[in-house]
Amino acid sequence: MGLQLASCGSINDKLSAGMGDYVPQWAGGLPADAPPRPGTAQYDAWMRENERRRHMPAAEREKLEQAEKAARQNGAPK
Questions:
Q1: For residue 12, what are the CA distances in angstroms to 1, 9, 22, 56, 68?
Q2: Distance CA 23, CA 28 (A)
């Protein structure tokens, strides 16, 4: 009985981490602008992009952010 209880706990731990990605935002899931999970290829690309932006001059970064904001408001993909 103890073995079953222990295995159930480890399965639930893995399920809860993965299922949170599929819950809609209106039901308490991750927001649309949440960063990708660490350890994935998308996370590595996201980190490289953040590092690239960090080294940009502030004026260029502001222009880029304004253009992305306008694109999101118009419904265009990032």
A1: 17, 5, 15, 43, 38
A2: 7
The answer to whether the CB of 12 falls within 8 A of the CB of 2 is no
Yes or no: say if 43 and 35 are a contact pair by the CB < 8 Å rule: yes
From first to last of the 78 residues of the chain, give the pLDDT tens digit: 666 656 665 666 666 666 667 777 777 777 777 888 888 899 999 999 999 989 989 888 899 889 988 888 887 554
User: Closest Cα to residue 16, out of 34, 3, 28?
Assistant: 28
Which of 51, 47, 49 has the alpha carbon at shortest distance from 37? 47
- Can you point out the beta strands (E) in the chain? none
What phi and psi, each to the nearest 5 degrees, are found at residue 37?
-70, 140
Residue entry with tokens 């980190």: 47
